[in-house]
Amino acid sequence: DQQVKQNSPSLSVQEGRISILNCDYTNSMFDYFLWYKKYPAEGPTFLISISSIKDKNEDGRFTVFLNKSAKHLSLHIVPSQPGDSAVYFCAAHRSGAGSYQLTFGKGTKLSVIP
Amino acid sequence: NAGVMQNPRHLVRRRGQEARLRCSPMKGHSHVYWYRQLPEEGLKFMVYLQKENIIDESGMPKERFSAEFPKEGPSILRIQQVVRGDSAAYFCASSPEPPTSNQPQHFGDGTRLSIL
Fold this sequence. Notes:
The complex is a heterodimer of chains A (114) and B (116). With 114 residues, chain A is an all-beta fold. Helix content of chain A is 0%, strand content 53%. Chain A is built from no helices and eleven strands. The N and C termini of chain A lie far apart (38 Å). At the A-B interface, strand 4, strand 5, strand 9 and strand 10 of A face strand 4, strand 5 and strand 10 of B.
């Protein structure tokens, strides 16, 4: 049962344009969401997170939007740069569960074309 | 910048052998998490440990797999009698305390385990 879903395996965007990566979740108990970026042969690198009490969090070129009613979040990258080409993972966490394990989606491979 | 250190980066074992994967968390971090990534999949949680304690092992297979985080030294993920299906990338993450929105888990570069 995939509780965090990234339905687009890949995305291609022109340099300078906006990249929008989407993520859906099914578990309404999730209250903390993160995006990680991963290059081949490296570990995931934390990008940005958002708590369920917010609907937007911004950090430089990266903005995460959360729509709790739709159980949907998205990562916006603007402007996109060739160095942003990587696999992006959406992850979710449930507070109070005593564990803090992250549940990951399968990832979206972003290619930024110069 | 002493991040999460995992070794070895690559490990090759024959079926039936044991695999030991090591993880040194970031300095000052006392919480360690192990995840496994199969090809074309996301990372799957295996186990969460604090020093000398296993807090949550709900994602770890009941047989052949074990983990520890001793008072001194790195965390160890041990796989006994490896099988081909154990081939995967194993990632370790750490955090200074139970992670909050301001203190996410930080990952190492992983150990790629190949079973011949």
